[in-house]
């Protein structure tokens, strides 16, 4: 029983720390933050999948927020996002 409790506590802490590291999508350039670069990603035909990939790349780059500046495609989507920190 003690092992289950410890496992659940560790899982809760890991989930909380990962969510605080994720970049946040914004609609306009955030005040007080500086642009640090641009990332691009490709996806199938799902806009949500494209957003998730851009979010992951923004987090990997160390951005605290990102703004999608372009997305296009028919059967294969591609997009770019500007990163802020």
From TrEMBL:
Keywords: Signal
Residue span(s) of domain YdgH/BhsA/McbA-like: 34-85
Keyword Acetylation part of the UniProt annotation: no
Matching InterPro entries: BhsA/McbA_stress_biofilm_assoc (IPR051096), Dodecin-like (IPR025543), YdgH-like_sf (IPR036275), YdgH/BhsA/McbA-like_dom (IPR010854)
Classification via SUPFAM superfamilies: YdgH-like
Secretion signal, residue range per the UniProt entry: 1-22
PANTHER family the record matches: MULTIPLE STRESS RESISTANCE PROTEIN BHSA, OUTER MEMBRANE PROTEIN-RELATED-RELATED
Name of the protein this chain belongs to: DUF1471 domain-containing protein
